[in-house]
Amino acid sequence: MSQRLNSYFGASPELRQLSSKAGQLLALQRLYEQIAPASLMRHSHVLQLERQVLTLAANNGAIAAKLRQLAPELTLLLQNKDVRLLEFR
Asked: Which of 70, 23, 72 lies closest to 49 in space, CA to CA?
């Protein structure tokens, strides 16, 4: 990120919080891309992390159903990468 953009995001507590949250979601997305099967990863992405619950967005119901089936396995894989989650949706 450029110095000017960093300066902008550091200008207020709200923008610092937003920048931090965006960075956290980007890091989770990168981890998700490492652990998710390629066929699912192309059709889903990290949506949010709130209260230790990771929510994924799926392009269709079939992908969502498969992600629900894999939730326990994906949770373990993320925990092995030191991401602490209570739930995976």
From this structure: 23
Q: For the chain, what percentages of helix, strand and coil (3-state, to nearest 5) are there?
A: 60, 15, 20
CA dist list (Å): 81 to 34, 71, 86: 10, 15, 15
Lookup result for tokens 């994924």:
56
Q: 61: which 2 tokens?
A: 């119901």
65 — pLDDT class (breaks 50, 70, 90): very high
pTM reported for the whole predicted model:
0.78
β partners of residue 29: none
3-state secondary structure of 81: coil
Rg (CA), the chain: 15
